[in-house]
Amino acid sequence: MPAPLSVPGVLLIFIIIFHVEALKPHLLGRHSVRTLRSVRSSSQQRDLFYKTFYFDQQIDHFGFLENGTFKQRYLVNDQHWHKAQGPILFYTGNEGDITWFCNNTGFMWDIAEELGAMLVFAEHRYYGESLPFGNESYSYLNYLTSEQALADFAVLITSLKKTLPRAQNSPVIAIGGSYGGMLAAWLRMKYPNVVIGALASSAPIWQFTDLVPYGDFYKIVTQDFANSGVNCSKNIRRSWTAINNLFSTAEGLQWLSKEFGLCSLLKEEDLYNFKGWLQETWVNLAMVDYPYEANFLQHLPRWPVKVVCKHLQFDTDVPDKQLLYGISQAVRVYYNYTGSAVCLNVSETATRSLGIMGWYYQSCTEMVMPMCTDGVQDMFEPMAWNFQAYSDECYALFGVRPREDWVDTVYGGKNIRSHSNIIFSNGDLDPWRSGGVNESLSDSLIAILIPEGAHHLDLRFNNEYDPQSVLLTRELEVMYFKKWIKQNTSS
């Protein structure tokens, strides 16, 4: 999930685009094989083999005037799926290219042999190659909704079970992280006849109007930095005033541009964008504070927040330039850990594998996630949640008004106890924990908190540096999978 949007208005949802007064950009036939790919997972150096297929999917599942179809991409690995009625682990694709999520969801690959499972990674409509109107898709965004995406997944699963030999009675478990985790949980809620259970990792299904405190997201980000180095969060809080001071003179702008190694000289009107760039950087670092070297959003060292904080452990009364020199070195940990960047571009923060503009639209319609900061309990400048300003900016961008209560109405808000067989896992370091289910609601709506976990750490490949807590979490998740599969196949 993209990081919260660091622009005037609102930080919209992932890793990783919310908060602010208003949202502004920094801004078809039966399955046909396309390729057989071998992908080397960059963080773990593992070879992943999958086939790529395309499925003729309805553009509109809920009306009858639009009868067109589009090619929905999905990836399949069945090397361990040998037994009739063997289970299917189904990844509910996020807001981006499905191959990226496939390569970053090592948990499914690690357990496929043990479960004798087929792996299916389904791409979300309007992202990657699954474009309902081809290159013109972003001119026709009305069919980009979570409800349509869930229907895509349900129809695809139903077709697979009908057409694949030995799959008619295969139990299917939905798995997803971040927005994909939200979809996995909602798929189980809306289509319990299609999936027998779901693992919703780092899934902020409650990060919506009046469901959780609006300031918690940024409090968690701040706590991560406060716990990772002396004076770290305090100096970041101080940096905003220091930036304002240097932006007030031509000499200060020139100094900042050089010190941060920017690709272009800062101008006075760049103040908000520059601070927004830094804000999103701190959020992204908290999200991907993994215990080993990884490149989920950027190539980063082990425990990157601790590495960042080494540059910010001086006294809180140092001069502005000394403070901002430390900030510039900290920022380079995120953007130039490998030393290969020639310069830094303040308009680029998130990975290109995410469909940022599509997510902006979703955030301007049904995915309205209120956030705010106060500058006291968090390390950011104060910014109140302003729904009207947010709505006005969405209308200016897309000609639509957000429905702030729609997700609560469609998916039940906090009244979900009637559902079953969903695991909600959250990392204690992950700011998206603020909108997650952090306490079990019943014997089959299970919440797991991972003390040393960042954004959906449990869905990544096993690693020699994994803390014991995430290893135990994965064991527990597999135990529940086996329980659900046994219940389904013995009934």
Automatic annotation (TrEMBL):
One of its GO terms (molecular function) is serine-type carboxypeptidase activity. It catalyses: Cleavage of a -Pro-|-Xaa bond to release a C-terminal amino acid. It comes from the Eukaryota. GO terms for cellular component: lysosome. InterPro entries: AB_hydrolase_fold, Peptidase_S28, Ser_carbopepase_S28_SKS. GO terms for biological process: angiogenesis involved in wound healing; negative regulation of systemic arterial blood pressure; proteolysis; regulation of blood vessel endothelial cell migration. Residues 1-22 form the signal peptide. Cleaves C-terminal amino acids linked to proline in peptides such as angiotensin II, III and des-Arg9-bradykinin. This cleavage occurs at acidic pH, but enzymatic activity is retained with some substrates at neutral pH. Homodimer. This is Lysosomal Pro-X carboxypeptidase.
